[in-house]
Write a structure and sequence with these properties.
- The chain is mainly α.
- It has a two-stranded antiparallel sheet with strand order 1-2.
- Strand 1 and strand 2 form a beta hairpin.
- The termini are far apart.
- It binds nitromethyldethia coenzyme A (NMX) and D-malate.
- D-malate binds next to loops.
- D-malate (MLT) binds next to loops.
Length: 435
């Protein structure tokens, strides 16, 4: 059975030829006009990036290497007795486009567990952070500091040839993913517990170890939730803020730790990954204001008051999606199976029946339907992970999978420095003055 690195080494030469052929055949073809509105409008819909791990369809949602979430749930290897996909398998799929065997997935679990230790100075950085520093800022600090031992940065200093970039990038990508549980676990225990961490078990899978570090390793349903959670949050094509930032920073040949540290800073924004925290804050405020088991009328009034206050309803809307996010659906199905009577889950269901109609009536949001963040916090809360300021860290652990996979391919395919053209408003007026 080949390892992931062996398999990549086999795939890379053919993919280099494949890309050459695409560029020879289609390289000079236009992808359609660019509207001035797109320059001012956050580049919505502008085709600008290559991203192989996943593609997002506005109606259908995400497909990882062509596979929908239900297909991944069916096809990817599971833990013994489990029914959710192991994120190890999803990473193999993102990197190679192939479904791995159980043995290959176990190999990745072992490899990541063996690489999981973080340097002592990174532990000290985290231990010195005030508990009032947001967990995402701590996370980004620690990931950036891992650059100290980057194989890519060292190889570059030693004069590595361009054609060999992918090897040390692969090693850094694997180290990055492997070390995130110890970083996330340490932040969680420092901020919300007594700072003491159990050791990684070299024979357990990634999600089991992550759950153990948080103190929930004995709860098999929670471990299953983490497997699903990491899988569905891993990748959402290339244009979202965290993925695009990682690719952009990586294009300067900053190593994967620097690149993904930058991704995390983008994920920490409330319109992106922080929305999972914001949803819980918003639901709790709603409960304080109108009580638990509130009527539909009271919930409607609360939603309108949010909009009238000039705020967004967190967890709703999307820059690309125009239907309910299949990641929301996957989490809803998990909840229906494992926690159908949870009161907060019932509130999320009530909100789902109410918010889209209000957003439609308000008439601004292009997509009134829920996104992934509308559901994730409720599931974590159910199992006792109630500290909402921590939720985006879990999104960050997951997003490393997608960004790392693309960074490996970018270096393998010799992706150039990203440097699009910008214009001033004065320049745009000048260009179109005579038209
Ligand atoms: N609540 C209230 N207003 C909204 C919402 C919402 N959930 N979604 C969009 N709008 C508004 C938006 O603020 C904008 O208003 P204005 O014209 O005054 O600037 C208008 O509707 C048009 O926005 P869209 O073109 O529909 O959305 P856009 O592509 O600009 O932004 C989001 C997408 C996701 C940033 C936006 O829908 C939003 O702010 N949602 C709430 C925050 C959220 O859930 N973010 C998480 C996204 C998923 N993730 O994990 O990253
Ligand atoms: C994501 O998972 O990155 C979010 O849904 C945001 C996006 O795709 O733009």
């Amino acid at each position: 059975q080949s390892t992931l690195k062996d398999r990549l080494a086999e795939l890379i030469p053919a993919e280099i030829e494949h890309v050459k052929q695409i560029r020879a055949q289609h390289g000079k073809k236009s992808f359609g006009p660019v509207l001035v509105d797109q320059l001012y409008g956050g580049m919505r819909g502008l085709p600008a990036l290559i991203w192989d791990g996943s593609v997002l369809d506005a109606e259908e949602g995400i497909r990882f290497r062509g596979k929908s979430i239900p297909e991944c749930q069916e096809l990817l290897p599971k833990a013994p007795g489990g029914s959710e996909p192991l994120p190890e398998g999803l990473f193999w799929l993102l990197v190679t486009g192939e479904i791995p065997t159980q043995e290959q997935v176990t190999g990745l679990s072992r490899d990541w567990a063996a690489r999981a230790a973080i340097p002592e100075f990174v532990e000290e950085i985290l231990d010195r952070c005030p508990p009032t520093l947001h967990p995402m800022s701590q996370f980004s600090l620690a990931v950036t500091a891992l650059n100290h031992d980057s194989a890519f940065a060292k190889a570059y200093q030693d004069g590595i040839s361009k054609k060999d970039y992918w090897g040390p990038t692969f090693e850094d990508a694997m180290d990055l993913i492997a070390k995130l549980p110890n970083i996330a676990g340490r932040i969680y225990r420092n901020v919300f517990g007594d700072g003491k961490l159990p050791a990684i078990d070299l024979h357990k899978d990634y999600s089991h170890n992550l759950a153990t570090l948080f103190g929930f390793g004995e709860n098999e349903a929670f471990v299953e939730l983490l497997r699903l959670y990491i899988t569905i949050h891993s990748d959402h094509e290339g244009g979202n803020v965290s993925a695009h930032t990682g690719k952009l920073v990586g294009s300067a040949l900053s190593d994967p730790f620097l690149a993904f540290g930058a991704s995390l800073n983008g994920l920490a924004g409330p319109l992106h990954g922080l929305a999972n925290q914001e949803v819980l804050v918003w639901l709790r405020k709603m409960q304080e204001k109108i009580g638990e088991n509130a009527s539909d009328v009271a919930v409607k009034e609360y939603v309108w008051s949010t909009l009238k206050g000039g705020q967004v309803v967190p967890g709703y809307g999307h820059a690309v999606l125009r239907k309910t996010d299949p990641r929301y659906v996957a989490q809803r199905e998990f909840a229906l199976k494992h926690l159908p009577h949870d009161p907060l889950f019932r509130l999320v269901g009530q909100v789902y029946n109410i918010v889209p109609n209000i957003l439609l009536e308000a008439g601004k949001a292009k997509n009134p339907w829920p996104n992934v963040d509308a559901h994730s916090g409720v599931l974590l809360t159910h199992y006792g992970l109630t500290q909402m300021q921590f939720y985006t860290v879990l999104f960050g652990v997951s997003r490393a999978f997608g960004v790392a996979a693309q960074l490996i391919w970018d270096r393998a395919l010799g992706a150039p420095l990203e440097r699009p053209k910008s214009y001033s408003s004065a320049a745009i007026e000048k260009i179109f003055r005579d038209h």
